[in-house]
Amino acid sequence: VVLVFSADPVRSATRFGERGANIYALQDATIAAAYAQLAVVATGLASTWVGDFDEQRVKELLELDADLVPVSLLSVGYPAETAELSPRRHLDEMVSWR
Ligand SMILES: Cc1cc2nc3c(=O)[nH]c(=O)nc-3n(C[C@H](O)[C@H](O)[C@H](O)COP(=O)(O)O)c2cc1C
């Protein structure tokens, strides 16, 4: 199963203007995908977040509404293995304290 999460900039713009179209629409789609990943794990399944895809091809295949912008795909399935933890950037690299 592959779940497709799309931004809807036109809908967001009707309430929040340019910031809604440019930012909130993306936030809505990505937070939905992130929470879906948690729900997937809670059921014992696993997922891979895919951001590298041909946006136009996905729109055509799914006959998506022209206003929608697919931003992430989640491929969902039963995990064959438990992945090793990968290295993480140190907090000091990413956080600036004021
Ligand atoms: C924004 C974003 C885009 C990603 N795009 C892809 C992708 O196109 N193809 C893919 O195989 N995995 C993609 N991944 C999944 C990552 O490669 C990786 O499997 C996942 O984030 C787990 O990473 P970790 O090893 O750092 O925990 C993406 C992850 C993120 C957060």
- Specify the biggest β-sheet: 3 strands, antiparallel
Instruction: Give the N-to-C terminal Cα separation.
Output: 44 Å
Average pLDDT figure? 96
Number of helices: 3
Walk me through this protein's architecture.
By secondary structure, the protein is an alpha+beta fold. Helices cover 47% and strands 20% of the residues. The chain has 3 helices and 3 strands, in the order E-H-E-H-E-H. It has helices at residues 9-42, 55-62, 91-94, and strands at residues 2-7, 46-50, 69-77. The chain has a 3-stranded antiparallel beta sheet, sandwiched between helices. The longest helix has 34 residues, at 9-42. The relative contact order is 0.21. The model has no long low-confidence stretch (mean pLDDT 96). Flavin mononucleotide binds at residues 48-52, 86. Flavin mononucleotide (FMN) is lined by residues 48-52, 86.
